[in-house]
Amino acid sequence: MTALSPWIRHGVLSATEVRDAALARSPSREAATTLVRELAWRDYWHRVEEVLGDRIAADVEPPAARARKPGSAALPADVAAAATGNACVDAFVRRLLDEGWLHNHERMWLASWLVHVRGVEWRTGADWFLSHLLDGDPASNHLSWQWVAGTFSAKPYLFNRENLETFTAGRHCRTCALLGHCDVEGSYETLTARLFEPTAPPRPPLRIAPAPAWCPATTTPHRPLVWVTLDALAATAPATSRYPNAPRVFVVDPAWIAAERPSRMRIGFLIECLADIAGVEVRRGDPTIVLPEEAAARGCDGIALAATSSPRVRRAAERIAAAMPVEVVAWPPLVDGNAVRDLGRFSRYWERVSRSALASTPVL
């Protein structure tokens, strides 16, 4: 993979920029499609978050399989210390803590092992990832954990040693003291029988209607203050580029710090992104209080921000919009959203958007 996800997550690169580069430079159409499909997953998760908001932190639907082991809300100490004795798991944890990034396969394997083998609640693992990942994003992170857990998918995701060795050339297994008797030995059928009850309650088909376009105000400002958000940490982000001469403010929200508990590495990455935005000022406090005060102090008549699916940012913008104009500036679309009818499963979404997703942005 490209390892560009931290910059995509924070709007330094847009998904359309990456898509266009992939279509233009990839060695094959198949390679480009694989990358674009990953970008589409991110777009999909955000469309789901637009509908569910904070409810992405709870089961979207009942578990697809009933676990034999009751769930635990605590992260095991040996996992947090990368001292499980399982070579692959410990390597993944060290990379998470030391680099703040994991390959997509590593994320799925670690999540699957933690939830299905160690019996840790998916929310505990999701919160742990969110604290450390440089690309930490609640929508992609929490809904991906639910996909692994089977609370937003047709079945739980499992990995076994054969799968691990196939994609890692066996480098973890060769030196693992647990080789031959680790927790993920065996076929998927064997693991399924070992980890889950034979039957699960039937679930109705999941249907999620897309949310309407978000517009918190009916008027737009003439002299806006640009609110630089976590989704738009770049001078090229929509609101910042539309108003290049407007004052720019990033607000460190204590409620966000308390909710996501970002690691020092993650905070450092955010600071590096902010340092590349000329003229941005950083304030601390409740955005619904700080931003109107900053706008008034600079003679601005409203706020402009880049479009986001973040329920925290949306709530703040809607409260501010009760007192002054708030303009939401859209990102270049990755897909034709008009074609989307149902967000219940990624497969149905991809069927609707794949053609537009795999088309380069027209040159004007």
Describe the overall structure:
The protein is built from 16 helices and 5 strands. Helix 6 packs across helix 8 (138-149). The chain has helices at 5-9, 15-25, 29-52, 77-80, 87-99, 104-117, 122-132, 138-149, 161-168, 188-195, 238-242, 254-260, 264-275, 287-297, 311-321, 346-357; strands at 224-228, 248-252, 280-284, 302-306, 326-329. The chain is α/β, with parallel strands linked by helices. A 5-stranded parallel β-sheet has the order 3-2-1-4-5. It starts with a helix and ends in a 7-residue tail after the last helix. The mean pLDDT is 95.
What features would you highlight for this structure?
46% helix, 364 residues, 5-stranded parallel sheet, alpha/beta
The helix fraction, in percent, is 40-55%
Q: Structural class, from helix and strand content?
A: alpha/beta
Could you tell me the strand content as a percent range? 5-15%
Q: Shape, please?
A: globular
Order of helices and strands: HHHHHHHHHHEHEHHEHEHEH
Q: Tell me the number of strands.
A: 5
- End-to-end CA span: 30 Å
Which spans have pLDDT < 50 for at least 5 consecutive residues? none
Largest sheet: 5 strands, parallel
- Taking all Cα atoms into account, the compactness measure Rg is 22 Å
Number of helices: 16
Sequence of strands across the biggest β-sheet:
3-2-1-4-5
Mean pLDDT: 95
